Amino acid sequence: MSTPQRPRNQQAAFTRPGAVDLSALKQPAAPGPGAGADAAGGGAPGGGVVGAYTVQVDEQNFQQLLEQSMTAPVLLSFYSPTRAPASVGLADDLQSLADEFEGKFLLGRVDIDAVPQIAQAAAQAMQAQALPLVALVAQGRPMPLFEDAPPLEELRTGLTQVFQQLATQGFTGRHQPRSAAPAGESDSDEPPLDPRYAPAQNALEANDLDGAVAEYQKLVDANPADAEAAGGLAMAKVLQRTQGVNLQTARESAASAPDDVDAQTLVADLDMLGGHVEDAFNRLIEVIRRTADADRDRARNHLIGLFAAVGNDDPRVLAARRGLASALF
């Protein structure tokens, strides 16, 4: 996500250096003497809950919050009411978006004044001292997203692009809603989130790619307008086609046969899994430009399938559609 220029003087301009190690932030799993129910409660789904998909971070629940990133993305929003009031507004906006995105990410609000040890470890790990500060943690791998407090619409657009990119890499899990009900009230009757997608997502988590394709196909057959199911089906097929493929061998085969549609589409799939979405699109557009008849149709259909995997509203898809039109006409 691009960020506006920071007009005020802050320490350590926040860049995008890539993944960093947050292992130093994790707390020991075993609670100390007397921790008892408090430590256990912090690890439970309701511990520190302030919203359906938002948790107030403390030293007891932080390790589990990081572990929950193994199945679906976690965002960490660092803020301070006293030092950077704008950071509080950003955390509030992210909390609203967490509800809007319905489990695509779980938000951890980190009050650096209340948990200075966590804040200090994060600043050291990410080499960032400025506030606001937001980091993405996916499958245990943290990556800084942005500093400053962009408008809500810019946040929404940027996060949508981030999660679309994660989906192209097969990371499609969702968090279940937390209970934010007052004491004495129960949400045990609340239905699970998007139960239609549960069989397909469970199959993906079990590495049953054939099963995931079959489950997503059922959803698409039942409702061809279900864009999320269509995207899930397209991504599951990418994973299915590339299972067990040797990347170096595939690239060598494609380099030696530039007009071999099978070789080129396979490398395009591998590029998608590696996050090189534009490379995948451009490769297939060039194949379409060079081929004709049945080969061209196969390459075009494959490219359209990759569009669905990324999301038809993604700017990279919109640009690639213009490139496709140019190649065809």
UniProtKB/TrEMBL annotation:
Residues 1-43, 171-198 are annotated as: Disordered. Residues 26-164 form the Thioredoxin domain. Residues 33-43 have a biased composition (Gly residues). Transmembrane segments: none annotated. InterPro entries: Thioredoxin-like_sf, Thioredoxin_domain, TPR-like_helical_dom_sf. One of its GO terms (biological process) is response to stress. Residues 1-13 have a biased composition (Polar residues). Signal peptide: none annotated. Gene3D superfamilies: Glutaredoxin, Tetratricopeptide repeat domain. This is Co-chaperone YbbN. PROSITE patterns: THIOREDOXIN_2.
